[in-house]
From TrEMBL:
Cofactor(s) annotated in UniProt: Mg(2+)
Keywords: Cytoplasm, Kinase, Magnesium, Metal-binding, Phosphotransferase system, Pyruvate, Sugar transport, Transferase, Transport
Name of the protein in its database record: phosphoenolpyruvate--protein phosphotransferase
Organism of origin: Marinobacter lipolyticus SM19
Pfam families: GAF, PEP-utilisers_N, PEP-utilizers, PEP-utilizers_C
Amino acid sequence: MLSILRNLVQEVNSARDLQEALDIIVSRVQKAMGTEVCSVYLLDPATNRYILMATEGLYRKAVGQVSLAYSEGLVGLVGAREEPINLEDAPSHPRYRYFPETGEERFRSFLGVPIIHHRRVLGVLVVQQRESSRCFDEGEEAFLVTVSAQLAGVIAHSEATGAISGLSLTGEEARDISFNGVPGAPGVAIGTGVVVYPAADLDVVPEKPTDDIDLELGLFAEAVTAVREDIERVANRLASQLRPEEQALFDVYLRMLGDDAMPGEVANKIREGYWAQGALKQVVQQYIRHFEMMDDHYLQERAVDIRDLGRRLLSHLQEGEQKDQVYPERTVLVSEELTPAMLGEVPKGQLIGLVSVKGSSNSHVAILARAMGVPTVMGLVDIPVNQLDGRDLVVDGFEGQIFASPSDELRAYYQEICDEEDELIKGLEVLRDKPCETTDGHRVSLLVNTGLMTDVVRSLNHGAEGIGLYRTEVPFMIKDRFPSEQEQREYYREQLEAFAPSPVTMRTLDIGGDKALTYFPIEEENPFLGWRGIRVTLDHPEIFLVQVRAMLKASEGLNNLQIMLPMISNISEVEESLHLIYRVYHEVREEGYEIHMPKVGVMVEIPAAVYQIRELADRVDFLSVGSNDLTQYLLAVDRNNPRVAQLYHSYHPAVLQALVRIAHDAHSVGKPVGICGELAGDPGGALLLMAMGYDSLSMNAASLPKVKSVIRSVSREWASQLLEDVLLLDSPHVIKSCVDLALRNAGFGRYLRPGRTTPVALVQQAAS
């Protein structure tokens, strides 16, 4: 059964569209289970009805014609109960519903299992048998449940692909097609999708039509010729080193590139109207599917050869493209996984939105997007990326949604939100030089998190009082080697000069986890609980010492440097780090540099540190909470995993209780404590942190004006009462709703989410 399941998943993964995937499912399951009928009913989101989408055994003419209400019949019962139903005599069941057009009156035994993906029922997979004496046994039921679970994600992705191509399950034109992810950076963007994908990766090649078939045929012919020449060149070079049977492998490659082999099929696809890269993708994936299905192990392995040839051909096609990537005036960048380099390719002023399949609201691209003020949605795991190129898109960074092919009504709704946001930002400019002080005189420092020089102007324009977190790993990540002391010194000096005399807190190198250096790879099964942060740099003091030396020399004449140690889990790490810092300080002074000893602090981002605040504070000058990682570790939720993103919540009672304890314990020994996680940039979160007693809040520059406006408009007494109220609650969602309600009642609803009608309500109004 395992091999059957593996082959089935491979076939379905290679299907061109939803219908082909469903046809494969019913055919293979019927054969594997030796049953007379296998059918798939999918729940159409537009009508909330189950539609017969594929069958093997019922009348084919019923496909697309038979539909059931959400809770109608045995199919509806399976979906409503979200569990299998196994019956020997289905017609005797009170919920049985008979459709003459299917011909199912002959079948009595019934087994139906729900198809569920991310808690959403997508449909029902059904098998039926004529004899009432047959009861599907536990093994068969388990097999069908396993098939359903394995295929749910594939069906969800295929369903999304079908929707985005412009058709609903019923064949009607689709508009306002929505996909849900997680908010990456707040705001709304309305623009044109531009899909960027890694070079020579067939899986992410978009399927596009072509108007110039001759041009595409010519490009493909050139690619085939180039690859043949590459293979012949390698074969000739290795001829003297290989035995005849090994040399024959190159002949296999060359035969595959013959006109009557794979290239001929690709050319036929191009003649059907596909661009060369999309045609190549379809043919190669079809070949791979066939080879992987074969029983012969040798032939199965040939799938690897086909994939390699496909990549080689694609690489030449991409090199031969006649034009560079064109970015529209209002570009929404879309990718399987966005990287900072991709963002940098878009011409200045044209990037208005970001959409990423991988990542979450706390991944580093999302943090970068917030610093840049670019609305972003992350974690769209089922979105058909290659279908979004050139499409009109709406990016809702407040709710974590995107809409493809928006209607005029939806576009107008979101345009109004954009206009309100612009007005709000302009209205907050007057606060730039005013202190962040409550109405009853409590002062809080507002700082920025940064790692880029481009953030400096925006930060200063928004009234930042310094840098609460400078991510020093950024200079390391843009190099193909460790930066020298002089290179680091230049980076650090720019930041220190820009903000002088205000403090600049530089975190020592924090790699590992989700931050990797290509030239210093760290391969671990669980990187977030592994070798990262201070653990790496203490194991490599040569890296730590050079970095601290560069920081100290960069601070000469400014003396606004503060050093912060990441991922501290015990006192010995602090003592060892301080020993190295003091050593470098004295060495730099001996070299003739006139510098002051900087303040040194630690980041509180591991639960163990929460219970050692007093001991840590005795050894350092300040403490700073990294609430992103602290939340991740307290809740055991990978903050970059979109599958569990809904469990990551900064307002979780355990997180708030930990933050209260940290502030109390730090102040009890007379040490200042700040926070530099994303919670500080949320207006509601900032109020709670201020009430807890945090001395400084560090955030992305775009959030600073809103936070300052809210804090300046309330008393600390009001915020303290709000904190007291929410600490009695036990649900993060209820706590967030309570804080939002308090802000709305205080007149700050516009900071939470502009607009008056939800998109869902608007779409429903348009449909009615």
